[in-house]
Unplaced genomic scaffold scaffold_2706, whole genome shotgun sequence (Paxillus rubicundulus Ve08.2h10), 200 residues
Amino acid sequence: MASSKETRSQKPHEVEAYMKLYYETKVKPNIEEAHALATATPSGEATVGVKLPPKLETIMKKTRELYQAESPKVKAEVTVHLQQMIAAKEERGEQARKTAGLTVKDKQFYIDKLAPTLAHFFHKLHEVTGWAFTILMGGPSDRLGGSIDVNSFHVGVTRLGNLFDQAYPEFNSGIMRPFSEFLACVYPNNNNQEAEGDVN
């Protein structure tokens, strides 16, 4: 038999799963009704002015009350969903551990695959949507000795056949330079020599 301490530690997880499953259909309507009553004047009319949303504490309290009053069938559905949430979280953790184990050469391998992968993906998207795309990307590159490599990728041309970086005269100074400065903050341990380029 589980101790009361174990039961209390499991409750927030069950409530979270319940909220994910039934927020729109059960939780939200009850919270809005309770919030409307709490903010009404003594005459029963809603107060005039800016209405603050319910506090998280209020939402969680109401959700716990609703969950405790639910039928065994609903609680069984919540238990199944909770197990799915736990399994998904463990899988994400496993993927993160695998990614953390990549060597510098492994990462460079995937960096080198960016150009053909992006070209295939976004050109296909351009065909099926008619949209134009501009992608900014960058980070430490083993080929540059750890320096930050900054690139842009563009799909979609003007009537004159220009991509965005060609059509906008201040693309390098107005977009790529601020993005390079941003990357320097993201990777402060890498040197400041940045290589800029396009992947079209």
Residues 139 and 186 are 9 Å apart (CA to CA).
